[in-house]
Amino acid sequence: MKLSHLALSSVFALALVACGDDGSSGTNVPADGSAQVVPGDSSATPAPLTPTDTTAAPADTGSTLPSEQNPVDNPEQPGGENATGGEGSGDGAGEGAGEGTGEPATPAEPTDPYAVGTDIDEPSFVPEGCVSTPLESGKGEGVTCGEEFKGYIYYDTDTSAYDPANPDLSKFTSIDKVFKALKEDEKVVFVLRHAERNSSSGKTSHLTEAGIFQAQSVGKKIASEEPAYYAHSEYVRTRETLENIAVGRGETGFTHEAFGVLNGDWFIKSNDAYDVYKSKTTDGNYVSTTDWAYNGGYEDAFYDLDTRAKQFIDEFLVGIISNKARISIVATHDQFLVPLTVYASDRKINLRYFEDTNWITYLAGIAVIVGSDGSVKTLPIKGLNSGI
Question: What is the pTM of this model?
Answer without folding.
Answer: 0.77
